[in-house]
UniProtKB/TrEMBL annotation:
<protein>
    <submittedName>
        <fullName>RNA-binding S4 domain-containing protein</fullName>
    </submittedName>
</protein>
<keyword id="KW-0694">RNA-binding</keyword>
<dbReference type="InterPro" id="IPR036986">
    <property type="entry name" value="S4_RNA-bd_sf"/>
</dbReference>
<dbReference type="Pfam" id="PF13275">
    <property type="entry name" value="S4_2"/>
</dbReference>
<dbReference type="GO" id="GO:0003723">
    <property type="term" value="F:RNA binding"/>
</dbReference>
């Protein structure tokens, strides 16, 4: 399973926003549903807070898709 870097312009970014940006969720409602169903992990641990603040290097996974927060410098 490969992890792709998803660039963001500023920290922090909320989990719900990042799911959409990384194409792990179709929209905000889908992101909420994934989180509510406990299908989202951050750095290997299930995350149930849509507003969780993500920082550079955090790895988010949904199913077998993973994306890493990559702060643009």
């Amino acid at each position: 399973m490969s992890t792709r870097d998803v660039p963001i312009t500023g920290e922090p970014i909320r989990l719900g926003q990042f799911l959409k940006l990384a194409d792990l969720a179709d929209n905000g409602s889908h992101a909420k549903d994934l989180i509510d169903a406990e299908e989202v992990t951050v750095n290997g641990e299930v995350e149930i807070r849509r507003g969780r603040q993500l920082a550079d290097g955090d790895v988010v996974a949904v199913g077998n898709e993973t994306a890493r927060v990559s702060l643009e410098h």
